[in-house]
Automatic annotation (TrEMBL):
Pfam family, one: PALP
Record-annotated Tryptophan synthase beta chain-like PALP domain positions: 145-468
Record family assignment: In the C-terminal section; belongs to the TrpB family.
InterPro entries: Aldolase_TIM, RibuloseP-bd_barrel, Trp_synth_b_CS, Trp_synth_beta, Trp_synth_beta/beta-like, Trp_synthase_suA, TrpB-like_PALP, TrpB-like_PALP_sf
A cellular component term, taken from the record's GO annotations: cytoplasm
Region (Disordered): 71-92
One GO molecular-function entry: tryptophan synthase activity
Protein name: Tryptophan synthase
Pathway: Amino-acid biosynthesis; L-tryptophan biosynthesis; L-tryptophan from chorismate: step 5/5
Assigned keywords, A-Z: Amino-acid biosynthesis, Aromatic amino acid biosynthesis, Lyase, Pyridoxal phosphate, Tryptophan biosynthesis
EC numbers: 4.2.1.20
Swiss-Prot/TrEMBL cofactor(s): pyridoxal 5'-phosphate
Length: 509
């Protein structure tokens, strides 16, 4: 009760469940402002079932009186409060935002409350600790390979026509994607918390690989949950995790994709909270995870902003583009630009085959998923989470980070659906014009950037977060093109026949 009062403030608190006798009421009344008795009253009624109605009423009234009488005495609200209850319980207020407008919050079981409070407190200490920030910067430079370049894609820009497209080359980061930034940061936090075991979820496998990588670096046990469907389409990344010493657990429940992997990871954490840190891979989940992930990924936007200004006489880009599944690479790219009113923020969502996709902000509605209030794809009658689909495993998620929900409703960012064919066309065009094979996730962002470049015209600038490289997706792309890699020759014409039939805004790509 001291912990609850510390968190809830000066409001009446009632306690119920399992209280059935006057003695139990008296004991509880000394701690609470109200006592709830339920099943004992039903049992009292059952015991007098053979009585006439008036006698039953009398028997019930007599029983209820013994309960009321047990509450007589000094009110719990008049008792002195335990000094330092908030701090002792881990509910000491921090400066971290727990909501983004109407979105965010912490919808969690009681068993995880202390772990979240502990994480929040330790994170605030860490980001105000020069030694921690120095360590983080060291790993960004010496282990991850940052700062990653900002590259002007001249041949792609010329082929598209219109604005100049720039690529933040985050695919050059160690392990091949932006996920390593957050993985390093949270693993260092886990060490500060004294945790010896790390669990993670993954969709495309890149966060799983990043988590396995940093756990190998820091000597932590690592278990990664991954939907069985994603294991099949990202088998190379599963093998990479195993090589790095991590255990990859296939999840076969539900749709067997990212949503279900997160469910299993959360179940694990409830069971093993004392020695385990849950290294969430995207800017989703309950407070403080969306803030933590955003901050660790904001290095992308900070670097891109400074690099663009240095290369353009202090000017800022006209638009910044990133793909959005859960939204970690996008919020990391957007956040340093949010205060720049002249810079548009555009998120590309996965729209699958344009009938069943994962375009949460474009087609979803507010609700609660995985411990946070945000937009999600749900049946508007039953409230059940809907099945999603995308050729990109990393964007195949029915929710989105709460800060993106806030940016959408505030009108600061715009989010557009990109279907599988548009993403594959952008994948092809970037590969052929710049010699850069992107992952399928940022291929959605490249597709949206191509549209924006055409709309904005010459003299404008569009910066894209190229958050992952395409090695992991080659098998998926080959299947989409009906290419048999076991019997493939470069002259079989399959690639040409595919690119020839792709259209883009009614024109041949």
């Amino acid at each position: 009760m001291a912990r609850v009062r510390a968190a809830a403030g000066d409001v009446p608190l009632a306690v119920g469940f399992g209280i059935s006798t006057p003695e139990g009421v008296k004991e509880t009344a000394a701690l609470a402002d109200g006592v709830v008795v339920g099943s004992a009253i039903i049992r009292s009624l059952d015991a007098s079932a053979d009585f006439a109605a008036p006698k039953r009423a009398e028997a019930l009234e007599a029983f209820a009186k013994t309960l009321r009488d047990a509450t007589a005495g000094e009110s719990a609200r008049d008792a002195p409060r335990e000094a330092g209850a908030a701090e002792a319980a881990g509910f000491k207020p921090t400066s971290l935002p727990d909501h983004f407008g109407a979105f965010g919050g912490r919808y969690i079981p009681e068993t995880l409350a202390a772990a979240h409070a502990e994480l929040e407190l330790e994170y605030e200490k860490a980001i105000n600790d020069p030694a921690f920030l120095e360590e983080l910067a060291f790993y960004r430079k010496q282990f991850i390979g940052g700062p990653t370049p900002l590259y002007r894609a001249d041949r792609l820009s010329e082929a598209v026509g219109g604005a100049t497209i720039w690529l933040k080359r985050e695919e050059l980061a160690h392990t091949g994607a932006h996920k390593i930034n957050n993985a390093v940061g949270q693993a260092l936090l886990a060490k500060r918390l004294g945790k010896t075991r790390v669990i993670a979820e993954t969709g495309a496998g890149q966060h799983g690989v990043a988590s396995a990588t940093v756990c190998a670096l820091l000597g932590l046990e690592c278990v990664v949950y991954m939907g069985a469907v994603d294991c099949a389409r990202q088998s190379l990344n599963v093998f990479r995790m195993n090589v790095l010493g991590a255990e990859c657990v296939p999840v076969r429940a539900g749709e067997a994709t990212l949503k279900d992997a997160i469910n299993e990871a959360m179940r694990d954490w409830v069971t093993n909270v004392r020695d385990t840190h849950y290294l969430i891979g995207s800017a989703i989940g309950p407070h403080p995870f969306p803030t933590i992930v955003r901050d660790f990924q904001s290095v992308i936007g900070k670097e891109a902003r400074a690099q663009f200004m240095e290369m353009n006489d202090g000017a800022l880009p006209d638009a910044v583009v990133a793909c959005v599944g859960g939204g970690s690479n996008a919020i990391g790219m957007f956040h340093p630009f949010v205060g720049d009113e002249g810079v548009e923020l555009h998120g590309a969502e996965a729209d699958g085959d344009s009938t069943q996709g994962s375009a949460t902000l474009s087609r979803g509605s507010p609700g609660v998923l995985h411990g946070t209030k945000t937009y999600l794809l749900q049946d508007e009658v039953s409230g059940q989470v809907e099945a999603t689909h995308s050729i990109s495993a990393g964007l195949d998620y029915p929710g989105v980070g709460p800060e993106h929900a806030f940016l959408k409703d505030a009108g600061r960012a715009q989010y557009a659906p990109i279907n599988n064919d548009e993403a594959l066309a952008a994948f092809s065009q970037l590969s052929r014009t710049e010699g850069i094979i992107p992952a399928l996730e940022p291929s959605h962002a490249v597709a949206l950037a191509i549209k924006l470049a055409k709309e904005k015209g010459p003299g404008k600038h569009v910066v894209v977060n190229l958050c992952g490289r395409g090695d992991k997706d080659m098998i998926t792309v080959a299947k989409a093109l009906d290419v048999d890699l076991d019997d493939y020759t470069p002259t079989d014409g399959k690639w040409d026949s595919f690119t020839n039939r792709i259209t883009y805004e009614g024109k041949d790509q």
